[in-house]
């Protein structure tokens, strides 16, 4: 097994898994109040398949969704300059899927990112009714903060749509979990997002697994489906 070297790029908030790759790059984006570490198993798997993997790290409470997207576009342009014409793919968890959608609609987003593939794990594409139901609780509001967290607590489907759309010709796969809380909610859910809230209004492949929101990114099934989708 080849050695994986981890570099930390402080200015870009980037963790880079190096390898000998020719199939393009994959940017992995974690969710709210998580770090790049939760995407390491996914990154290792993609690294072994020959992709150049970037584990993008960002402080989710410190900026708005739009602010995070703008910072991500800087990274995407750096990758595009280093590998012009090569597609940039994405694997995201939860909030990460909203950030990449917003970044793809940024005027400075490189074309290499628009022609790649995207795998979205448990994205709150239409907001989260679960989050909105607890948004009035003071400790919850404090924990989520006033920026991206506040948006997650309050954004409706229309608000999420206003952030932009995935390109119609982009290959996108959504993987949703249904191992959730059925004592409080009868609607299929992963514990944090209802199943129907993960769907996009643009063309995409939608798959469902019996996994929870918090651990869908480390599920063997999720990783295997992601690998097959990006390779084929």
Whole-number tally of structural domains: 1
Q: What's the Cα radius of gyration?
A: 17 Å
Percentage of β-strand residues: 15-25%
CATH-level-4 superfamily name: Alpha/Beta hydrolase fold, catalytic domain
What integer is the average pLDDT?
91
Largest beta sheet, briefly? 8 strands, mixed
Structural class, from secondary structure content? alpha/beta
The backbone outline, from C-alpha atoms, is: globular
Order of helices and strands: EEEHEHEHHEHHHHEEH
Could you tell me the CATH topology label: Rossmann fold
How many β-strand runs?
8
The CA-CA distance between the termini, in Å, is 23 Å
The share of residues in helices is: 25-40%
Strand line-up in the sheet with most strands: 1-2-4-3-5-6-7-8
Total helical elements: 9
- By CATH reckoning, the class would read Alpha Beta
CATH architecture heading = 3-Layer(aba) Sandwich
Unreliably modeled segments: 1-12, 17-22
What distinguishing features does this structure have?
disordered N terminus, alpha/beta, 232 residues, 8 strands, eight-stranded mixed beta sheet, Rossmann fold
Describe this structure in words.
The structure is a single chain. The protein has 232 residues and is of the alpha/beta class. The chain has one domain: Alpha/Beta hydrolase fold, catalytic domain (Rossmann fold). Helices cover 33% and strands 17% of the residues. The protein is built from 9 helices and 8 strands. The longest helix has 18 residues, at 65-82.
Topology summary:
Elements: E1 6-9, E2 14-17, E3 25-29, H1 40-48, E4 52-56, H2 65-82, E5 88-93, H3 95-104, H4 111-114, E6 118-121, H5 129-133, H6 138-144, H7 148-154, H8 157-161, E7 172-177, E8 205-209, H9 220-231
Parallel strand pairs: 3-4, 3-5, 5-6, 6-7, 7-8
Antiparallel strand pairs: 1-2, 2-4
Helix pairs in contact: 2-3
